[in-house]
Design brief:
Helix 1 runs antiparallel to helix 4 and helix 4 runs antiparallel to helix 5. This protein is of the alpha+beta class. It has six helices and 14 strands.
Length: 247
C-alpha cells in the first residue's frame, strides 16, 4: 500500500509492504498527524501552542502531550549548550523542530501497535523504517538530482537538516544568527524523535555539532561541512558521489 497526503505543511508518504494491511491503520496515521498540526502549529491561531504564546494557557495548563514536547525541547536546549532553542526573542514558542519527529514516531508506533511489521513512513524527507532493509538515499547538498550516500535501514529512523531547501532557516540561538559551518547533517537513530531533534541541534551548533551528535547515544552521523568535506561515523557508508572534500 502507498499513500501520500500533505500534512503539517509537508508531504507525508506511507508505504506498507505487508501482505495484509489492517483496516484503518493508514487512516489512523494521517488522522493523528492532522490532529498534531491543529494542536501544535504556532501558525494556527486556535492551536494549543498559539494559546500558550498569547498567555491564554499557563505551562501548568497544557496537555500531557505538549508538556512532553516542551520537556524534549528543554532537553535538547541544555544538551546543545543553548544552540538549539524553540524560544527565540521576538518569535515566541515554535516547537516544530521537535514536534515533527516526535509526531511521526508516534504515528509509526500506531502502525506497529496495529500489527504492521514492514513499512516506511516519510515526512518531508525524514523517515521511520520498520522491517526491511530499506534503502534510503542522503541527498547531495549541492545537487537535488543526486545522492551522496545510500543507507540500509532496518527498524531505525533517519533525519537530515540542511540549508539547501529553505535557505538559512535554522538559527544558532546563542547568537540569534543563521547557523553556519555545515551544509547538511544526517542522523540515524532508533527513533525519529531522536534523529530529527539531534540533526537540527547539530546543524545549529555548526561544525562542532558533528562530534556532538556522534556522541549522543545510539546515533550515527553523516555530515557535509561548509568546505564540502564529508564527516561521518564508522557505521555509515563512504560517499558514493564526490561532494568536494575527503571522507
Amino acid at each position: 500500500m502507498n499513500r501520500v497526503e500533505h500534512v503539517m505543511g509537508l508531504p507525508v508518504s506511507l508505504r506498507i509492504d505487508d501482505a495484509y494491511v489492517p483496516e484503518g491503520a493508514a487512516d489512523a496515521v494521517f488522522a493523528w498527524l492532522r490532529e498534531v498540526d491543529a494542536r501544535f502549529s504556532p501558525f494556527k491561531p486556535g492551536s494549543e501552542v498559539s494559546r500558550l504564546n498569547r498567555g491564554e494557557l499557563g505551562t501548568a495548563d497544557v496537555s500531557a502531550d505538549l508538556a512532553h514536547v516542551l520537556e524534549l525541547c528543554e532537553e535538547y536546549r541544555r544538551a546543545s549548550g543553548g544552540a538549539f532553542d524553540v524560544r527565540l526573542p521576538g518569535r515566541g514558542l515554535d516547537p516544530c523542530a521537535v514536534v515533527k519527529g516526535w509526531s511521526v514516531q508516534r504515528a509509526a508506533e500506531l502502525l506497529t501497535a496495529a500489527g504492521v511489521r514492514k513499512f516506511c513512513l516519510t515526512a518531508g524527507g525524514d523517515i521511520v523504517a520498520a522491517g526491511g532493509p530499506w534503502r534510503v538515499g542522503i541527498r547531495h547538498p549541492g545537487d537535488a538530482g543526486r545522492v551522496c550516500a545510500v543507507l540500509e535501514l532496518t527498524d531505525a529512523a533517519v533525519a537530515t537538516s540542511g540549508n539547501y531547501e529553505r535557505g538559512a532557516h535554522i538559527l544558532d540561538a546563542r547568537t540569534g544568527l543563521p547557523a553556519t559551518g555545515l551544509l547538511s547533517v544526517t542522523v540515524v537513530a532508533p527513533t525519529l524523535t531522536e534523529a530529527d531533534a539531534t540533526a537540527t541541534a547539530a546543524f545549529a551548533l555548526g561544525a562542532e555539532g558533528v562530534a556532538w551528535a556522534a556522541g549522543r547515544p545510539d546515533c550515527e552521523v553523516f555530515a557535509v561541512d561548509a568546505a564540502r568535506k564529508v564527516l561521518r561515523t564508522p557505521g555509515l557508508p563512504t560517499p558514493r558521489t564526490p561532494v568536494g572534500g575527503a571522507a
